[in-house]
Design brief:
The chain has 323 residues and is an alpha+beta fold. It contains eleven helices and ten strands. It folds into two domains: 212 residues, Endonuclease I-creI (Roll); 89 residues, no CATH class. It has a four-stranded antiparallel beta sheet. Strands 7-8-10-9 form a four-stranded antiparallel beta sheet. Strand 1 and strand 2 form a beta hairpin. The protein starts with a helix and ends with a helix.
Amino acid sequence: MSFSKDSKIDILKSGTIENDCCVLAFLSGLFHGCGEISKSNGKYIASFVTDVSELYDYLNEVVHKLYGEWLEIEIEDDYVINKTTYYRITMSEENSERVLNDIGILELTPTGYEIIWGIDNRIIAEECCKKAFVKGAYLGASTSSIRLAGEEEWKKTTSGYHLEFTSHSHQFLTDLANLLAEFGIISKLVERKSLYVLYIKEAEVIKDLLALVGANNSVLALSNEMITRERRNKVNREVNCINANINKTIDASMRQVEAINTIAETIGIDALNEDLQEVAMLRLANPEESLGDLLELSTIKLTRSGLNHRLKKLEKIAKTLKE
């Protein structure tokens, strides 16, 4: 199961909303996120399209509590995308218009009902209602590319941190961005093909959003993932550093051996003074050792910089001989 779907189920398991005003705000956010309006016998019919089948029981309970009706659910044949099954949860013809009006989606005017694309401020008058609205919007419109590698698979390549809300309504996502900003959650709005996308890429901000909507287990899971990735990145940095040092040592050793061989083939190692002769023979006998290891093998007392200086001197002599 995906992180996105897990987080939604996490929210649904956190318990139903108690206050009627918050239930309306939740339904409003959910409808803005995944609601659809159709017409039957001249009346508007409200339905929700989701890939989270567990939403049905949760939604059924809050709607029945407020309006005394039970909802219908069916598999939506037109919404089988990437082998994901979608469900349509439909309200009754008798109550749909009333609910849509109560949650700020339809407004009755002298010429009939008009659809409101933005967030009705009356729905989110209280802070508790704002949180309920965001919870509904998250369940209805959010997706995420976050993948949790877990302890067993920490070496696997995982995606970055990305969570987004998608909608055909620019006004809804603009209002949602402003609402999230009130809780310190900063997002960015862009247009992608025929959709608008409100996205967050910072892991800490995503954690704040998950905490806001009550996905507490998902907050912990994401925190563990961040720790795992940081540990993996630290190990990778250390390995890269070690490999870089090994390559540097090998390159230097090859240059030094080549220089000593040049000296041996031209003037001969015996032409060098005794200090340089011993260093030259030491390097030839131990071509793969680091400076530290050479110091331990040396019979003369030298510092690391002193040994390096003599090896550099051998390279300089060889360069002069080549020229």
